[in-house]
Amino acid sequence: QLAVPIAVVFAPGSVPGDLPRSLPFRDVQETEISVNRRTSVVSRYETVYRSTTAQEETALGAATAREADAALCLLQDTSLGSLTMYVVPETSSLLPQVGSSTLRCQPLCASPIRGAPLTQVMSFTASSIAATLSDRMPDSQLGHDPRRHLKSSLGRDPKSHAVDWDIEDAVNRYVQPILDKLSLVANFSVDSQILYYAVLGVTPRFDKETSSFLLSAHSLPHVINPVEARLGSSAASLYPVLNFLLYVPERSHSPLYIQDKDGTPVSTNAFHSPRWGGIMIYNVEAPASPQASFPLHVDVDMVRVMEVFLAQLRLLFGLSREELPPEFLLESPGNEGLADWELDRLLWAHTLENIATVSTTLTSLAQLLDKIGNIVIKDDVASEVYRAVASAQSAMVELATGHLHSAFQASKEAVTSSERAFFDPSLLHLLYFPDDQKFAIYIPLFLPMAVPILLSLAKIVREARQRKKEPTKMD
């Protein structure tokens, strides 16, 4: 069960006449989202409808929507996962500019049913839950798959192009703000490298009409493998890696364009692969004079490149924009690249994924241990299992009460404990040996110690019998 605390606040002059009850009042809506025959998620929207306070009215009287938004944020419930929506009259000066906390809804958001599309977009949707749980639930018929992140790189032809890109400044200005916002979800590191004489592994098709080279959609999967084999970070990292590549084609294959399935040129000249990353093709203008000297100096337009990479990063994190009703307007998240409500959606998705992971890991561990009847479970392994179960249960309770941050932290602890138990060294060396082969392991280990002990016992017995003048006999 996922609970979302919502407050719908009406400014003076915005209260519609068709409210079901007088302000303030509460409304609760539940929707069950079926994942498979045994698993479902219940979304619970707990909405409070009320009028503005004196402080909120003062904030809504600001000159611009951005100033009003900043003032309102200080008065709102700042807990992760909660939503506060302000309804203002049509005469409000804030309406020409729309802030993240100020919505041009008129009376439309007064009805819980009318406001539902917006609250779902800003919290979670059936599609986002499906994307989170699809690869954890074998019976699920829901599509999409979760994504993950990490890195940047470039390819060029040093014979014809001398390419310069200010990657450090671009990362600090455009990438780091969104990574700072995502620091609650995971730890990130960013590396860059330059590959010389990079090849795509696919020969582009020359188009006589446009005097350009084309890559069709069906050939794009074959582009990645040759380049990936030369990327250093993927081989050295134990953690998920995302690759963002800027490819400058060689002069003999320029200009190079990507076509979609319909044969239409892709406007960004880029594509992405789920869980791997993205590639953008950066064409360099041909020299005006045939006598131009090579290599040509090229300064990469990092704004244009980072717009594509950040859009791909959002897609790989499952942060694609949901379709909004036409009467709703949302302000861009700006340089941070990520709105607060989008971060909430990501935390909901990761929390659900962590709980599903813990369930799968502990179930697999139990099934393995059932097959090994004589295995001994150490106390610390048992403690990790108990801790994983308790943390997962705590995460589910926190989700049901709408405490997203504590639920996410508990789910991370549950995953850590379950993996420690599953991969404990005391279990690993026994899990992959049949029972009839374990004695072959134990006997060589204890035989060097057993032989001297048996010989010493035999010597003691022999000496005792000699003292009694009895004939010796080895049993």
From TrEMBL:
Asked whether the keyword Transport is assigned, the reply is no
Record's bilayer topology term: Multi-pass membrane protein
Name assigned to this protein: GPI transamidase component PIG-S
Provide the residue span(s) of the region labelled Disordered: 135-155
Its annotated compartments are:
Endoplasmic reticulum membrane
Q: Which domain of life is it from?
A: Eukaryota
Amino acid composition bias (Basic and acidic residues), ranges on this chain: 136-145
The pathway is: Glycolipid biosynthesis; glycosylphosphatidylinositol-anchor biosynthesis
Alphabetized, the UniProt keywords read:
Endoplasmic reticulum, Glycoprotein, GPI-anchor biosynthesis, Membrane, Transmembrane, Transmembrane helix
Task: Name the source organism.
Answer: Tauraco erythrolophus (Red-crested turaco)
* Biological process, per Gene Ontology: attachment of GPI anchor to protein; GPI anchor biosynthetic process
| Cited InterPro entries | PtdIno-glycan_biosynth_class_S
Stretches that traverse the bilayer: 439-461
Annotated Gene Ontology cellular components are: GPI-anchor transamidase complex
